[in-house]
Design goal:
- 72% of the residues lie in helices and 5% in strands.
- By secondary structure, the chain is mainly alpha-helical.
- It has a four-stranded mixed sheet with strand order 1-2-4-3.
- The protein is globular, with a radius of gyration of 24 Å.
Length: 412
């Protein structure tokens, strides 16, 4: 292993990112306020609010433990020559470079899944169970993991093989790799809701009735072509509630968690729907898609510059440079840039959430219905009502619920 500029740059960046996240977590814990905000007294009782704070403490501390273990495991593997050992092991099997790359990525992915498994089990069956969220059975948990591994192999390995082949053989490889991934992403946007999501959850048509009529009226009022409204059995895994849109153009669909329908009134559900329609009408979905494509282009362009860099490879203890090693090590080098980009995207996302709330308030004429829905979701999900601003800056894609409620009240 060569202790060069890349070695110290990557080591310093990984430690700095860990410390930043740790500081954000500790500040967030200190910001917990035992006094219930006045605007939530109609939905939170003292016991439920105490549970929300306990849940935040426990999940945060568990997250710190998991992040610490992950960092130590990665540094141990790196500093004790794990990457060089793995590369030598794979090369000894005598396969071509693309196959070597698939084995290299695949074994690292499996190792990560194995290390993460105890944390996933504890989070699901201890923490989520303790606070009444978990509905996942051990059988469902195992089947989900196997399906996830199967899809990763079925879809991920061919795509990865193609990208490695492009970087091995094609001029301007970064451009062709970007076009390949962009095309795959767009295809998945159509394929996933219809063929992949049903592998994990059951989607049933929303029965005729007052709710469906109200949703259709709202869609027509917004000139929003909604082709399908489904109910998803979210209660199969968790008591937490949600809703989401999928599809493009005239092929738009909405899925409502069964837990959401059970806990919200029709005006509240229509308010949530109007908020999601607001993202489409304000071009937030297109904006996010284009920015994601731009980030991917930047990533592949930089990979093209670094993928055959021997100094980067030697910093990880690998003697023979290769496309697949360069690819892997650059993604690690890119982590600080990725973090900055994610923070910038989160800032934009929080702005977009305010705009979607404002759209919903205007089109429904009932801003307080959406406010009521947000308050109920805060109770049902045991949300932290007093997050620290630095934690929000680092991690939140949505504004804190108290700020969203204040904005809606100004419109009410």
């Amino acid at each position: 292993m060569e202790y060069n500029t890349y070695f110290y740059l990557i080591l310093g960046a990984l430690l700095a990112l860990y410390v930043l996240d740790l500081v954000a977590d500790l500040l967030n814990l200190r910001a917990l306020d035992p006094k219930l905000p006045a605007e939530f007294t109609d939905v939170f009782d003292s016991g439920k609010y105490a549970d929300s704070q306990a849940y935040t403490r426990e999940t945060t501390r568990f997250g710190i433990l998991e992040a610490s273990f992950g960092l130590v495991a990665f540094l141990g593997f790196w500093l004790f020559g794990g990457f060089g050992w793995l590369d030598n092991l794979i090369r000894a099997w005598g396969h071509a470079n693309v196959t070597n790359g698939l084995l290299f990525f695949g074994l690292l992915y499996l190792a990560n899944e194995i290390l993460d498994l105890p944390f996933s089990i504890y989070d699901t069956f201890v923490i989520e169970e303790k606070y009444g969220f978990n509905k996942t059975t051990p059988k469902t948990f195992v089947i989900d993991k196997l399906k996830g591994l199967g899809l990763a192999a079925l879809l991920g390995l061919p795509l990865l093989a193609l990208i490695l082949w492009i970087f091995e053989t094609v001029p301007n490889a970064w451009l062709w790799a970007w076009l390949t991934v962009t095309g795959f992403t767009l295809v998945m946007a159509y394929v996933a809701p219809r063929y992949l999501m049903p592998l994990f959850n059951k989607f049933s048509p929303l029965p005729d009735g007052e709710l469906k009529d109200a949703i259709n009226r709202m869609s027509e009022k917004c000139q929003f072509p909604l082709t399908e409204v489904s109910v998803m059995d979210g209660s199969k895994r968790s008591s937490k509630a949600n809703a989401f849109f999928s599809g493009f153009g005239k092929n738009k669909r909405i899925a409502l968690f069964d837990t959401l329908i059970e806990k919200q009134t029709i005006p509240e559900l229509v308010g949530v729907l109007a908020h999601e329609i607001g993202h489409f009408k304000k071009k937030h979905i297109l904006q996010t898609l284009l920015l994601g494509m731009a980030q991917t282009a930047l990533l592949f362009f930089l990979i093209g510059l670094f993928v055959r860099n021997p100094a980067l490879t030697s910093a990880f203890g690998v003697a023979t440079p290769s496309v697949y090693c360069g690819f892997t090590f650059f993604l690690i080098l890119f982590k600080p840039v990725s973090k900055i980009l994610s923070i910038l995207m989160a800032i934009l996302s929080r702005k977009n959430e305010y705009e979607a709330d404002a759209f919903a308030a205007e089109v429904t004429g009932e801003p307080l219905a959406l406010a009521s829905a947000l308050k109920k979701l805060s109770v049902d999900n045991l949300s932290n009502l007093t997050p620290h601003p630095f934690y929000v800056f680092m991690h939140y894609s949505h504004p804190p619920v108290t700020k969203r409620l204040a904005a809606l009240r100004r419109r009410g």
